[in-house]
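Field reference: sequence -> structure
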Amino acid sequence: MKSKYISPLVCGFTASVLTIVPGLKEIGCCLIIPFAAGFSLFLFQKANNNNEKISVKDGLFFGLMTGIFSAVFSTALEILFTGIFHTNEFVKSLPQVEAMFKSFAPQILLDQVFQMYKNMAKEIRTNGFSLIYTIYFFAATSITSVIFGLIGGLLGMAFINRRNLNSDK
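Structure field:
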């Protein structure tokens, strides 16, 4: 039996590459990551020449691992491109976000939050790297990738099990 980590690794990497492509980034969490998780189950089954029913445990495992690998590779690619270009979407959109939020929250709270954001943007522009931004990006990406990976693993499990059931008839 082949390793259970290879197909989630490959699919997680592929999903992370696709989610940095402009235009696909917006659908990365809700379409690309779940599809990658389901596809990792399919690849694992094909690699093992196995048409047995996939358990919920395996569906969740493949979804979780695909989500984790996707988050790790997305963060690594974000760090790489931020280091090369000394800018990213966070830095570019910060002035518009600040202007939009001026009317929502108490000014003192906003000033403190946006001062921290401005410091992160300054670090990125000068050094090409911000540890706080990297931690924030990894945490946010991990949460969304794991959640949608789990959903994709379960949907992929259901789809593959239904397809295998129909092919047995």
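Note: DSSP finds six helices and no strands in the chain.
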